[in-house]
Amino acid sequence: MKDINQFTITQAVKDSFRTEEGSRFEQLLHGLIEHLHDYTREHQLTHEEWMRVLMFLYDCGKISTPERHEFILLSDVLGFSALVDMINSKGGATEGSNLGPFYLDDAPRKALGADLSDGRDGVTVLVRGKVTDNLHNPLPGAIVDTWQADASGTYPIQEQAQGQDKMDLRGVFEADETGRYWYTTVLPKPYTVPYDGPVGELLRAGNRHAWRPAHLHYIVRAPRMASITTEVFFENMEYIDNDAVFGVRKSLIAKLRPVKKGEDLGVTTDKKPEAVVDFDFILAPEG
Ligand code: BEZ
Ligand code: FE
User: Fold this and answer.
1) In the Cβ-directed half-sphere of 224, how many Cα atoms lie within 13 Å?
2) What is the topology classification, in CATH, of domain 73-283?
3) What residue stretches are annotated with the Intradiol ring-cleavage dioxygenases domain (predicted)?
4) Most buried of the four, 62, 106, 150, 200, by CB within 10 Å?
């Protein structure tokens, strides 16, 4: 019988896994064991604290459904998701940010200049820009897939029981031959991440709020380029400095400005915009 104590247990646990030496799996698993054990020794965890952590994770699992991922929300409020986004953003490309839980991979294709508001009230904004590579070459035909909340901070997918169409306020655009995209939509409002579960309890325990600043979500892709998942925020808007999920990056904040009287916006739109947001996307090559 090996003599095992609170200092030798870490190596013993690592050795107990028969992983391929030097593999990525082994590195990640060994790192996790080391950090978990170091944390436990450093804070001299009590049985009560240990059980509290396990019950918290149990509660996260209990409330989770295919539509409600409490563990992803936990990752979001701990800045874990944002950290992974930051690490995996490619230099020279638009920075990545939260995917969030409301993406649908089968949103309808829309023509450039279409209006996404589906008759909803709110400020009509023209969103326009170009998609280029990191050497400023346009990427004609790039796909700009977008989704967002409405002017009350709700995603239509959250209100299907109230008769809303989950495909509203989303669309897939194909950039024109110069890499340009444009459409109109309704200006979204801030909203809260779900806080009626264990993650909400954690936020309250830490005196934190659950609000996210208003934003537009995007996945942008083009052949042979690494696709980006990101968000665009609006300058000076509420919660821009304290997003509950740490999604805001300086480079992702756009200026929202009113359309000037008689201004030539250079594009044709189905609906007359009251405000404009310009945002360019930069994709880096794959690999
Ligand atoms: C969102 O941006 O849609 C979102 C992100 C994290 C948690 C909940 C919602
Ligand atoms: Fe969102």
Assistant:
1) 5
2) Protocatechuate 3,4-Dioxygenase, subunit A (2.60.130)
3) 100-283
4) 150
Ligand 1 atom at minimal distance to the Cα of residue 73: 7
Q: CA 85, CA 230: separation in Å to the nearest integer?
A: 9
Task: Please answer whether residues 254 and 278 qualify as being in contact, where contact means their C-beta atoms are separated by less than 8 angstroms.
Answer: yes
Q: CA 38 → CA 52, 55, 183, distances in Å?
A: 18, 21, 52
Domain ranges of the chain: 9-44, 73-283
Q: Which residues line ligand 1 (CB under 6 A)?
A: 73, 76, 98, 100-102, 193, 212, 245
Mutational pocket test of ligand 1: of 69, 98, 203, the residue with most ligand atoms within 8 Å of the beta carbon? 98
Q: Whose CA is nearest to atom 6 of ligand 1?
A: 100
Contact call for residues 192 and 214 (beta carbons, < 8 A): no
* Segment 66-89, tens digit of pLDDT: 878 999 999 999 999 999 999 999
On the question of pLDDT at 190 being above 70, the answer is yes
C-beta separation of 216 from 148 below 8 A: yes
Enumerate the β-bridge partners of residue 192. Answer: 211
**Residue closest by Cα to atom 4 of ligand 1:** 100
* Alpha carbon of 137 to ligand 1 centroid (Å): 32
144, 75 contact by CB (below 8 A):
no
